[in-house]
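Shipment paperwork, digital attachment
Item: protein structure file
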Amino acid sequence: MTIYSHIVACTVNGTIGKEGTMPWHIPDDLKFFREKTLGKIIIIGSTTFKSLPKKALEGRYYIVVSSSKSNISKEDNLFYADSIATAIEHADKISDNWGGEVFIAGGQSIYEQTFHLVTHIYLTLIPTVLDGDKIYPIYLLPKKHREKNRASKRIKNNLVDYLYFIHYTKTF
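Attachment content:
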């Protein structure tokens, strides 16, 4: 059975994006993302995918959700799906070959459409408030998921001095 998980970094007010980019650059969060998703499937929206510094990190299988038919690609480990339903169907077919866990990595619409599917949420909480035009629905967490563990890390960054890495699990 495939396990679906959100992986997200957001501020305390839920901001995940502004004008097509992440409004921060925090290497410790990027490292966490790389380590957690290595050898896994990542479902991601086309806008979020285009915002990546490198289009596809090695050692992962990307399913990019896009309504544009011009996104056909012949790259290895990259599949374009025209809907979340198609992305989930494809992920279910191949997940055993990729560790059985699928990470959903945004953006806002993709998170909203998949919240009901996820068993785990790996949240990097950036302890500040930033304006943004894309948010993660953190207001749903107390209703659907419970905190399993939390770690904090001091960092050197112009934006914040520390991060919280929080793992939530679904309550059934």
